[in-house]
Model the fold of this input.
Amino acid sequence: GVVIPAFARLKISPVIGFIIVGMIVGPYGLGAIATDHAWLYPLTITDPQNIEPFAEFGIILLLFAIGLELNLARMIAMRGAIFGVGAAEMLVSALLIGVGLLITGNPWWTATILGLALAMSSTGVVLPIAGTNSPVGRAAFSMLLFEDIALVPLLFVLASSSDLSDLPWMLFKGIAVIAVMLIGGRLVLPRLFAQAARTKSPELFLAISLLVVILASLASEAAGLSPILGALVAGMAIAETEYHSEVDVMTAPFKGLALGVFLITVGMRVDFRLIATMWPQLLGTLVAVVAAKAAVTAALLRFSGSRLAVAAETCLRICAPSVTTLSLIAAAASTGMITRETATFWQAATALGLTITPLLARLGRLTAHRVARGGAK
Done:
């Protein structure tokens, strides 16, 4: 209620506003002194874990909204971008970052884990800014979608106690669940939404929409996949019906509010004390990671035929590490694959990178406009 009107008046993206709010009211901001000043309790968040479920629901609704814009035909048409450029961007970035970490004295397993984690980009921060209809949005989405798919086996290896021989079976179950959701959605959803439309009850229509999202996310998670993939598939299934526009309008307020909570949790991860004591190392490593990812992304997009302006803007939009990076680092630290000290350092660098993602997006737009005015193809 405060952030969006204030930043709209200043013509600044609300994404930045929510992140700044998280930095101010979070456990490393005013929340750190709330125990000594009781009047600050209503204005601060001292326990971030309490709002994490709402933040995760924001990402789920974001992927659902993206799915509403992607019918199956469009996904098939994008398969080359998703499994070609998207896969190459993640793997080459991970290789480049991993080699850099290896050269600086990290063990090979630490360099491998951190390389893969830092190659991830933030769906929840990038796509609300980029959208999916522009050339930049489509390029970013194809890369982000492959990363979300790759997250499944990565988390399985880093955090699961299951044997690696179970991985093919888990992936088979996941593919089967997605296929069932798409086929079942094509058969059931048109009739379900038609019945809801006949009642002329907006509340019923909204309830059914949210129920479909939640059930799809739970089914995806039960199959060992990320719940956000289930939400994406649910959106794609509804996109095949004639009611996708109405569903999009109905769920938009929930998506906006939940995404705001997610962005606040991003700002809450910024530890000012750690940044103050280690800012040269944090800044240096973050600049190196951002530069490596930007260079790889721009080169691959140009190689695949994208215009220079599109490549320049896209590479700056997605070059920062992500919330997924934080999840992978935490999983590796919990199983002892990397040390707690290493995890703490890179989590701080990642949180700092997340806060500058909107600024990098703005820089990308300015760069693209400059390139376009220069007449480059």
